[in-house]
Design goal:
Layout: E1 4-8, H1 19-25, E2 31-33, H2 45-54, E3 62-67, H3 71-80, E4 85-91, H4 105-108, H5 118-126, H6 132-142, H7 147-159, H8 163-168, E5 173-178, H9 186-195, E6 199-204, H10 210-213, H11 215-231
Parallel strand pairs: 1-2, 1-3, 3-4, 4-5, 5-6
Helix pairs in contact: 1-11, 2-3, 5-6
């Protein structure tokens, strides 16, 4: 069966941070990356879900991987296309605001602040796993996106809620959870597992940017998941 793995990116919305993970996949399955618009486009979850749907491969079955910010988008697309989506992979993500106690930060995202300092972003996303190569990838990704776009996406996270869509998913779901995630708490995976009918959680000794820090281990888990879907 010809199955394509569709990658939906994190907050940056580019394909840049997927580079280590795609290299680790070693072309076993076709890979398609959705790159979100960086300017002059609505950054709401609804608009980006429509954009991603319009940029899916034209035909054939797919497996969706939603990283961080894109988890709700992967869930929404899968719920709307159950005949085509064979499986869903959720990586360090959520079905609703993972930090509800910080909802007050939403107001601050309207301030005309510059891009987040690379040093702080690196510490938050990579922690003790940071390397010069990963920091360079992050710098490149952040500089491709306007600060206003990043703020708009952060506002969306504060109010997103796709619990109803997650509960409708009948296809298998794989959740990749990072033990050292400083962005998304463990409760996010637990809540997703309570909602999804057929969900398995795999845990990695990694920070929030799991696919970037342990690409070989993550790709192995993803390929094993897809192998089982194809064989079913």
């Amino acid at each position: 069966m010809h199955v394509t793995l569709v990658l939906l990116p994190g907050m940056d919305g580019t394909s840049i941070l997927f580079e280590p993970f795609i290299a680790a996949l070693k072309d076993k399955y076709p890979v398609s990356v959705v790159r979100y618009p960086t300017t002059r486009h609505s950054q709401t979850y609804a608009a980006l879900s429509d954009f991603a749907t319009a940029h899916l491969p034209p035909d054939g079955p797919i497996v969706l991987l939603g990283e961080s910010f894109s988890g709700p988008i992967a869930i929404s697309i899968a719920a709307a296309n159950p005949a085509r989506v064979l499986g869903v992979i959720l990586c360090c993500t959520f079905v609703r605001n993972p930090r509800p106690n910080l909802r007050w930060l939403k107001g601050m995202t309207y301030l005309p602040t510059p891009r987040p300092p690379l040093r702080i972003a690196t510490k938050l996303l990579f922690g003790r796993f940071a390397t010069p190569k990963l920091s360079a990838l992050l710098r490149k990704a952040l500089h491709e996106v306007q600060p206003a776009v990043l703020r708009a996406r952060l506002r969306e996270v504060a109010s997103v809620d796709v619990r109803a869509q997650a509960a409708r998913l009948a296809m298998p779901v794989l959740y990749l959870r990072a033990l050292n995630d400083q962005v998304v708490p463990p409760s996010a995976a637990s809540e997703a597992q309570q909602l999804c009918r057929d969900m398995k959680v795999e845990t990695f000794d990694a920070p929030h940017c799991l696919l970037q820090v342990v690409p070989a281990e993550a790709s192995e888990a993803v390929m094993h998941f897809m192998d089982r879907l194809v064989a079913a």
